[in-house]
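Schema walkthrough. Field components (list of strings):
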Amino acid sequence: MSKYLAYPQIIFKDRGLLMAALADLGYTQVEDGQDLPLYGYRGDRRPETAGLVVRREHIGSASNDLGFVRSADGYFPIISDYDQRTLLEGRFLPRLRVAYAEHVVETVRKRLRASVRRTVEGSVVKLKVRY
Amino acid sequence: MPDIDFTIDTSTGELQMHVRGIAGPACDEITRLVKQLAGEPSREEATAEYRLRPRVHSRTEARVQPKRN
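Field assembly_structure (string):
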C-alpha cells in the first residue's frame, strides 16, 4: 500500500494559477472543495483530506488521488509515494512548480502590460519582463 | 528602461526575481504583486540603490524558494 507524503514547504499561493499549472500538465479535472476525501488505487478511503483533488482515474490506473491541502500560506501538495516516484517520470512536483512559476511571470507581464523575452540556458529559463 | 528578470530552474522549479531600474516604492509594488502570486520568498534583499530617490537606478532582489519548516 502506498502512503501519502505531504510537502508543506512547497506552497502554491494562488488557487487559479495552481489550476492553470495543473491544466498545463494535462490535469484539467480538479475537484474543488473542503476536506475532500482522498482514495487510494484500490478505492480505499485514506485518512488524509484536501481542498483540491485530482482523482486517480484522471492520473493512471495504479495511481492514487492527488491532493492539495489549503493552508494559511496557500496550497501544498499531498501525493502518494508511488505517484511521487512515477508521475511524469518522477518529476511531477518540479514540473508543476515550473508551470506555476511561468504563470506567475505571465500574470505580472499582463498586469504591467509589458513585453517578455525568453531565453533558455541549460536547465534555467530566463524571462525578462520589460515595460 | 525598467525590467524584471525572472529565472526558473527547471530541475527544481525554483523561481528567482530581480527588479532593475525601478525606484523604491514602484519596486515594492512589483515585489508585493509577486508575493501575492508566488508566496513569501525565502530570501529578499534590497541593495543600496534601492534606497535612492527616483531617477536613480534601483534594484531589489527576491528569491522565491520553498519555505523551510
